[in-house]
């Protein structure tokens, strides 16, 4: 038997703070080191003597910034001693989220779960599939300065449009009904208008605000004024663009561990630019939020595009406005579309099953197609002079060879260009009949620049598609070649417009503010009436599209931009004396000259053998095929963000439609977590 004096010598007082309005003072509890965390909770609740559900409460260790969630662990195992400041607080707290459409939602989120799991729960509340493509972003201080200077009282308008989802079952800390995300009971939207089915409206809530909730999330409400646009942060340089990506939260740690407090505002954004299995029937919210993220990226010049492309984007946006004003007609169309539901499902299935008919598959296996054409070769020379000459080009496998003429094609080529791992940049102006392809081919000391000029749209589409596939290590036998050709042609078709007499007379009568649809760089170049007329010209090519189709075309056009999917970081490569910019994409890393913006070297993920992080010196080291090693430290953000980007993209490449309902969360954390 142990005497009472001996027992007391092993006990000590632990002061606990209770995050509850009825408990104001700290509570001291006598404990021993072998008391487990669950037992401490029980002792505390018995001492508080308040009858309520305490199941959402847990201990937060203030000094070590961590949760004590393993209730079977003893205080000794956790390392808790008498000086520990433990707060007994709720795990689910209210968070404000700014969505890609600039609307703010207020909801209860788990502050103790890893961010990856928290984002998954948030996406269930908002009915966004493929939560692994999104993450939470802390707006960096640099991006907020402009707004603060312009308007110090900007808090008032920010609270006007807040959508409160705190009473959602998932938001309240309860598990979501698994039936909502089963294959047979997924919330359904009209594939033409994007409006939710009546059964889907009831999913958001039982109150009268349910329809409004659906509308805010799934439908576009362009309320951007030129003044609002002028107040927002617009990156001017690559260094400015790097600031936008500095605040991504660590997916392997909780919100509380990363300094996020209750009622804080974070941005919910698509982080990974690989949008898997977009389906208008189930993804109205996802498609709309993607469209909005693309729209704001273009308006705020976070991604560069040509004048011609900007007018296409403006026409598609302006078209949304006109379609939304006819919302009653849109609702009428939902009844008709239900009749064609089976046909739509069959056509979706046809698109899903890649591979086509048997004869095509046989051709793919036995015969790798080739292209052969007269093209003009442009090689940049010093003193800004260019040498342009016509050659006979042959595209086979992933290489381009060119000869003096067609007759000499049986002999040795003048030069053979291997396009695997190269950068392919469109150089097109449809109005000027210019169809160019810029190739940046990796060589030992940087990138070799080659320009190809095509004669017409068809030739350009075939060669451009072949170059894009070859850069990824694929040939024209790949099943994605023909769809890529069609995608390029449809984008060129949207750019190819002529001014009709009707459009010419409309600018005077149309009440349109082009400044709402065009980025500031182009609004400074033209007068308002000129822009209105040109938007109306471009509008003729998209006027027959349904609302959802217009959004999908907008997303597709965004994906066609050369800079699409690149997240920028300022880094210092090992052995280098100057800073460079690193562009991280879904399939490659690009080293970019910070002063000129020109790509220096490209490394493909498909050639990567391994990567690791030296957490002591915060250095990322990567090994590629052919004994290529690179190492760099990140200056504009924590190196963990780049490490997570690389692992995240590799994780997303493992997804397939066979098991598209479940995610291997453990694999994600293995690839992205790291050991600090």
Report on the structure:
Among the domains are: 11-90, Roll (Ubiquitin-like (UB roll)), CATH 3.10.20; 95-146 and 159-167 and 186-303, no CATH class; 370-476, PH-domain like, CATH 2.30.29; 567-673, PH-domain like, CATH 2.30.29.30. Helix content is 34%, strand content 22%. It has a 7-stranded antiparallel sheet with strand order 14-13-12-11-17-16-15, covered by helices on one side. A 7-stranded antiparallel sheet has the order 21-20-19-18-24-23-22. It has a 5-stranded mixed sheet with strand order 2-1-5-3-4. A hairpin with a 3-residue loop joins strand 23 (619-624) and strand 24 (628-634). The chain is globular. The protein starts with a helix and ends with a helix. One of its GO terms (cellular component) is cell projection. It holds the Pfam family FERM_M. It is found in: Cell junction; Cell projection. Residues 376-472 form the PH domain.
- Strand share of the residues? 15-25%
Q: List low-confidence stretches.
A: 147-159, 175-185, 328-366, 499-505
Global structural class: alpha+beta
Kindly state the mean pLDDT as a whole number?
81
Terminus-to-terminus distance: 45 Å
How many beta-strand runs?
Answer: 24
- C-alpha-based Rg, rounded: 29 Å
The helix fraction, in percent, is: 25-40%
Number of helices: 23
The major sheet is characterized as: 7 strands, antiparallel
Which geometry do the CA atoms define? Answer: globular
Order of strands, main sheet, comes to 14-13-12-11-17-16-15
């Amino acid at each position: 038997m142990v005497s009472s004096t001996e027992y007391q010598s092993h006990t000590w007082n632990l002061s606990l703070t209770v995050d509850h309005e009825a408990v104001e003072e700290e509570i001291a509890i006598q404990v021993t080191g072998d008391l487990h965390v669950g037992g401490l909770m029980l002792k505390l609740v018995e001492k508080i003597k308040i009858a309520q559900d305490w199941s959402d409460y847990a201990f937060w260790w203030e000094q070590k910034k961590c949760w004590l969630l393993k209730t079977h662990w003893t205080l000794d195992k956790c390392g808790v001693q008498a000086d520990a400041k433990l707060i007994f607080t709720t795990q689910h707290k209210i968070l404000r989220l700014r969505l890609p459409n600039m609307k703010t939602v207020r909801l209860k989120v788990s502050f103790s779960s890893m961010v990856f799991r928290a984002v998954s729960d948030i996406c269930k509340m908002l009915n966004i599939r493929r939560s692994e493509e999104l993450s939470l972003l802390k707006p960096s201080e640099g991006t907020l300065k402009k707004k603060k200077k312009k308007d110090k009282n900007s808090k008032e308008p920010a609270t006007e449009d807040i959508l409160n989802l705190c009473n959602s079952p998932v938001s309240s800390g309860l598990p979501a009904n698994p039936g909502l995300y089963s294959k047979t009971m997924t919330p359904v939207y009209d594939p033409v208008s994007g409006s939710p089915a009546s059964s889907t409206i009831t999913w958001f809530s039982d109150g009268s605000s349910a329809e409004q909730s659906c509308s805010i999330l799934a439908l576009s409400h362009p309320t951007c004024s030129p003044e609002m646009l002028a107040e927002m942060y617009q990156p001017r340089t690559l260094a400015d663009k790097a600031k936008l990506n500095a605040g991504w939260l660590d997916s392997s740690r909780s919100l509380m561990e990363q300094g996020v407090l209750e009622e804080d505002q974070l941005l919910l954004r698509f982080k990974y630019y690989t949008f898997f299995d977009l389906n208008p029937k189930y993804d109205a919210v996802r498609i709309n939020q993607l469209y909005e993220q693309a729209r704001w990226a273009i308006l705020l010049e976070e991604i560069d595009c040509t004048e011609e492309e900007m007018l296409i984007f403006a026409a598609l946006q302006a078209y949304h406005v006109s379609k939304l004003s006819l919302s009653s007609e849109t609702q009428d169309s939902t009844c008709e579309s239900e009749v064609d539901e089976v046909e739509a499902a069959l056509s979706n299935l046809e698109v899903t099953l890649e591979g086509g008919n048997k004869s095509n598959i046989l051709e793919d296996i036995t015969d790798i197609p080739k292209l052969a054409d007269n093209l003009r070769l442009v090689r940049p020379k010093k003193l800004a002079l260019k040498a342009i000459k016509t050659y006979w080009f042959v595209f086979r496998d992933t290489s381009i060879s060119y000869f003096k003429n067609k007759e000499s094609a049986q002999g040795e080529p003048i030069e053979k260009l291997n396009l695997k791992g190269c950068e392919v940049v469109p150089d097109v102006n449809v109005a000027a009949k210019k169809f160019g392809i810029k190739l940046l081919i990796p060589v030992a000391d940087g990138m070799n620049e080659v320009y190809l000029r095509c004669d017409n749209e068809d030739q350009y589409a075939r060669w451009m598609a072949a170059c894009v596939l070859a850069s990824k290590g694929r040939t024209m036998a790949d099943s994605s070649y023909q769809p890529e050709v069609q995608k390029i042609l449809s984008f060129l078709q949207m750019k190819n417009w002529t001014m009709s007499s009707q459009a010419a007379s409309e600018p005077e009568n149309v009440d349109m503010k082009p400044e709402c649809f065009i980025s500031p760089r182009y609004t400074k170049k033209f007068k308002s009436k000129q822009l209105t007329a040109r938007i109306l010209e471009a509008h003729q090519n998209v006027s027959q599209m349904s609302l959802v189709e217009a959004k999908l075309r907008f997303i597709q056009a965004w994906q066609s931009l050369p800079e699409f999917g690149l997240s920028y970081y300022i880094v210092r490569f090992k052995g280098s004396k100057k800073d460079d910019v690193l562009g991280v994409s879904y399939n490659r890393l690009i080293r970019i000259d910070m002063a000129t913006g020109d790509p220096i070297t490209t490394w493909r993920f498909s050639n990567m053998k391994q990567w690791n992080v030296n957490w002591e010196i915060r250095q990322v080291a990567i090994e590629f095929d052919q004994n290529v090693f690179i190492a760099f430290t990140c200056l504009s953000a924590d190196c963990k963000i780049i490490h997570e980007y690389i692992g995240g993209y590799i994780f997303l490449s493992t997804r397939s439609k066979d098991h598209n309902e479940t995610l291997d969360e453990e694999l994600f954390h293995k690839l992205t977590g790291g050991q600090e």
